[in-house]
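Data follows
____________
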Amino acid sequence: MAEFLLVPGAWLGAWAWDDVVPELRAAGHGAHPLTLSGLADKQGVPAGQQTHVEDIVGEVTRLDLHDVVLVGHSYAGIPAGQAAELIGDRLARVVFVDANVPADGVAFAAGPYAQLMADALAANDGFWAPADAERLAGNGLSDEQIARIRARATPQPGATLTEPAKLPRPLGELPVTYVKCLLAGAEPTPDVAELLRSPGWRLVELDTGHWPMFSRPHELARILLDEAVRAPGR
């Protein structure tokens, strides 16, 4: 039995996995969706990127999880990638779902997007406002799914986006599956493409948009179940 720890991307809470969790549990696995500090039901809790790393590591410890398949979606790939380095032999596999990946000393809001993000945070009292309907469109989401995301999404604390990542060892040494959602771009980003050359990394493609836990929850659950079987020692 694997223990799935499911970490949602920016603006989302544990609720984002509601359509995925039942299928993982029905297959006999543990499934633990996590709300990161400062979001959803944890709004008002001060949070930076390292807070989110601590959230993930702390949940593994609190629940005494072993054989962990750590799933990070979108932004959450950055804290999940760092946390994976810290949970040691409790980790079975990391699954990045159309995710950003951490690089040592680099923030989520870096490079050409740094100023755009700085402006967005300044305009919203230090928070990143949730995606509007226009941004969510074109991702294989129904009108009902877009409305559901919009109704429950909460602003992302700015420090989670501007604090640099801390990696004690190369990310390429981890056992990783990267799920590329094709409507969000046919090819992985250059940093991910480079990491996919690592022996322990594997690419899986999913023909949907950036939020597959809403648009294709059954297909995503099947991928997660398949990848749990590939985890070392299973």
About this structure: Residues 97 and 179 are 5 Å apart (CA to CA). The mean pLDDT is 95. The radius of gyration is 16 Å. The chain has one domain: 3-230.
